[in-house]
Specification:
0% strand; 17 helices; single chain; globular; 343 residues; mainly alpha; 76% helix
């Protein structure tokens, strides 16, 4: 029995879906269910192939490939290519920087893996993922809580040594601290503003770390403008990351998480996305004092996101809008590069 069917059985048998302490009681049931599975599976478990393990890692980080790994890798590469606009490199070489692209992706993915393992192993996350992302290893029964904890114990020093080699050690350590705050200290469930704030600083670790790796460890670094630009991206996350919550409302409700759409209502939440996206679409090109043609792509994509989030309100529509929000965000990453080439 996977976690989703187990949760449905518990709710039907005890009426948990109708009482206020349902999330806490469901978490206890999830833990008990996981412990029973752990004992039964470890007694006579056949060996699995390396391909099976690789797919487990892929499923763990699958959702964050498109929202973190790819966009933040793009941010790092674009920063490095922007030369003196954002870095201490006065003459960036295209081929040299592009050769670092796999290293930037590895650094991002290693840090994402730590966060995902730390997050998905928790009982509340299993409840949420059983509804919103049942393909993940824990709700699907592919991985147990104990196994996820052991993988996390192994992944932490590996990510640490990757940063020792590639650079951005400060960002990795800060990211580990934020991961602890978000998951183990319950910062994600404390308050939606606290959740967005931790996420915003987490994304600043990703984007500035990716930029440092792309610049070349020990060769070049971000200048003051580079860190200011990373902080501005942090502001975008803080004010509009609730876009990812729009399609996850059922799972968030099941675990008792107070996101903006659940606390203030779906319609209010959509306007808290539409307004910041509209403002940032204009503010970012203005910040770089670019030619009017540089406003076209950010504003056009921003309009698409705004129109969709206000008018298309199904779960599937919100999932696509979330992807377009990431594309819009990535479009903003190009602005310093345009500044470098146009002056």
């Amino acid at each position: 029995m996977n976690s989703l069917s187990m949760i449905s059985t518990v709710e039907n048998a005890t009426g948990l879906s109708n009482i206020s302490n349902a999330p806490a009681m469901l978490e206890c049931e999830v833990v008990n269910h996981q412990l029973v599975n752990e004992k039964s599976e470890t007694s006579n478990q056949p060996p699995v192939s390396m391909l099976y393990h690789l797919r487990t890692f892929w499923l763990t980080t699958r959702s964050d490939i498109k929202s973190v790994v790819i966009p933040q890798t793009a941010f790092g590469i674009f920063c490095a290519l922007s030369g003196p606009v954002l870095t201490t490199n006065q003459s960036p070489e295209l081929l040299t920087i592009l050769c670092r692209l796999p290293l930037v992706m590895i650094w991002n993915w290693a840090n994402v893996l730590i966060f995902d393992l730390a997050n998905q192993r928790l009982p509340g996350s299993i409840i949420e993922d059983s509804i919103n992302k049942p393909f993940r290893p824990l709700p699907s029964g592919r991985l147990s809580m104990v196994q996820a904890k052991r993988l996390l114990l192994a992944a932490l020093p590996i990510a640490f040594f990757i940063s020792c080699y590639l650079g951005a050690m400060e960002q990795t350590v800060a990211h580990m601290a934020l991961t602890w705050m978000y998951n183990d200290l319950g910062g994600a469930d404390e308050n939606y503003f606290v959740r967005n704030l931790i996420n915003a600083f987490g994304f600043m670790c990703y984007n500035s770390g990716a930029a440092l790796v792309a610049c070349g460890h020990g060769e070049f670094t971000l200048n003051r403008e580079g860190y200011r630009w990373a902080a501005m991206m942090c502001g975008i996350i803080l004010t509009s990351l609730q876009m990812q919550d729009m399609s996850d409302q059922e799972g968030d409700l099941a675990r008792g998480r107070g996101t903006i759409p659940l606390v203030h209502g779906d319609w209010v939440a959509r306007w808290t996305i539409a307004v910041p996206v509209s403002l940032w679409s204009i503010a970012c090109p203005l910040y770089w004092e670019l030619h009017p043609y540089a406003f076209i792509a950010p504003i056009a994509l921003g309009i698409v996101v705004v129109v969709r989030v206000l008018l298309l309100r199904s779960v599937d529509a919100d999932k696509l809008t979330w992807k377009l929000w990431n594309l819009w965000n990535s479009c903003l990453f190009l602005l310093p590069l345009i500044k470098y080439y146009t002056g």
